[in-house]
Specification:
- The protein has twelve helices and two strands; from the N terminus they run ααββαααααααααα.
- With 290 residues, it is mostly helical.
- The chain has a two-stranded antiparallel sheet with strand order 1-2.
- β1 and β2 form a beta hairpin.
- The protein is globular and about 75 Å long.
- It starts with a helix and ends with a helix.
- The model has no long low-confidence stretch (mean pLDDT 81).
Length: 290
């Protein structure tokens, strides 16, 4: 519901400034008057082959190889029935492709960098879901179902608290609403600090332990994997909420106030909307001539 002037205050958000300077400003160079350059098409094909086709598929292969291995050869027990199967991978892949096809309906040139970046985000979410399924496969024999449910509930609550903090921060930036520090804000900051520190410590510890001739119990290895899993999810949620929400909120306001933003950024009608979009919306050119 913010006005155009209020939406401009989003530029004071530190994460938005970083994204615009290091991500979207570079993506904009791949487009000219609503058309993507050839180099962008080549990069998209290469990254699609590397990401969804190779990396995500290799996670599937790794999961299936664990289930086909002799239990005696594994340091950690895994569930009898794999959660990450070929059918699950195919469903994720088709959903990702469907999102890409649906987003083709976005033709305005100034929104194309956001569209491309959104495809990257949906891929990262897909990658995170696969990683979660793989970890649950390993954790099920060690942890009870109720304990796993408790972890997911805590993760969801952590995500909601992060979202609450981000909304409070955006209100402060856009409207000057200074919300008083609340207990949930302090909890979020501690969760983020703890999660990032735990993930870094776990990675360093695993590297060191691999070099030492020491054998640890299955419980210790399971706890280490569980800690990395929780930290991974906290960091992923923090990234999506704090880094990406301001960017796509601004994209929404650009869609809501296209002419105001065009004039504010000093762009021509052709550069702002793109020739392809203007062919179906000739009234924009007519209004300009008037």
């Amino acid at each position: 519901k913010a006005s155009f002037e209020e939406s401009l205050n989003l530029l004071d958000d530190g994460f938005l400034q970083y994204q615009k300077g290091n991500v979207f400003s570079k993506l904009e160079t791949y487009y000219r008057e609503g058309k993507s350059k050839l180099v962008l098409h080549i990069q998209n094909i290469v990254f699609t082959l590397i990401g969804p086709v190779i990396i995500n598929f290799m996670i599937l292969v790794f999961s299936l190889s664990l289930h086909n291995s002799d239990p005696k050869d594994l340091s950690l027990a895994i569930s009898k029935h794999p959660l990450l199967t070929a059918d699950v991978y195919l469903v994720f892949f088709l959903i990702w492709i469907f999102i890409i096809l649906i987003s083709k309906g976005i033709k305005r040139a100034y929104l194309l960098p956001y569209r491309l970046h959104f495809h990257v985000l949906t891929y990262l979410i897909w990658l995170g879901l696969e990683f979660n399924l793989l970890v649950i496969d390993v954790a099920l024999p060690t942890l009870t179902n109720w304990f796993l449910v408790l972890i997911f509930v805590l993760l969801v609550l952590s995500g909601l608290l992060m979202l609450r903090l981000e909304i409070s921060s955006l209100k402060n930036v856009m409207y000057g609403v200074n919300s008083k520090p609340i207990l949930s804000n302090r909890i979020i900051k501690k969760l983020m600090t703890f999660g990032a520190g735990l993930l870094g410590f776990a990675v360093i510890l695993i590297i060191l332990l691999k070099r030492l001739p020491i054998t640890f119990s299955t419980l210790v290895e399971g706890v280490g994997l569980l800690g990395m899993w929780i930290a991974f999810n906290l960091i992923m949620m923090a990234f999506l909420i704090f880094m990406e929400c301001p960017c796509y909120l601004q994209a929404y306001y650009k869609w809501k106030y296209p002419e105001e933003y065009r004039e504010w950024e000093g762009k021509s009608v052709e550069d702002w909307y793109g020739k392809k979009y203007l062919k179906k919306h000739k009234e924009l050119l007519e209004s300009k001539n008037e």
